[in-house]
Amino acid sequence: MPGLSRYDTGRPHARAWLYGIASNLLRRHRRTEARAYRAVGRAPAGTDPGGHADRVVDKVSAQ
């Protein structure tokens, strides 16, 4: 665990420290999702990357 070495063992409870780690992880996840949604919003409307099923059909049809 990256932050474990920085924990002050003189404190009896780690709850606040763990909540801080959880908050940072949630904040990072939210930023990542927001970036992804903005990128999708910038994509041209006519482009459809297709899903896994479309790729399978294309490969089977090619064979």
Question: Explain this structure to me?
Answer:
This protein has helices spanning 15-42, 52-62. The model has no long low-confidence stretch (mean pLDDT 82). It has 63 residues and is an all-alpha fold. 0% of the residues are buried. The chain is built from two helices and no strands. Helix content is 62%, strand content 0%.
Comma- or semicolon-separated keywords:
63 residues, mainly alpha
Helicity range: 55-70%
The percent range for strand residues is under 5%
Rg from alpha-carbon coordinates: 22 Å
Q: Name the average pLDDT.
A: 82
Kindly name the structural category.
mainly alpha
In a nutshell, what does this entry contain?
With 63 residues, the protein is mostly helical. The chain has helices at residues 15-42, 52-62.
SSE topology sketch:
Layout: H1 15-42, H2 52-62
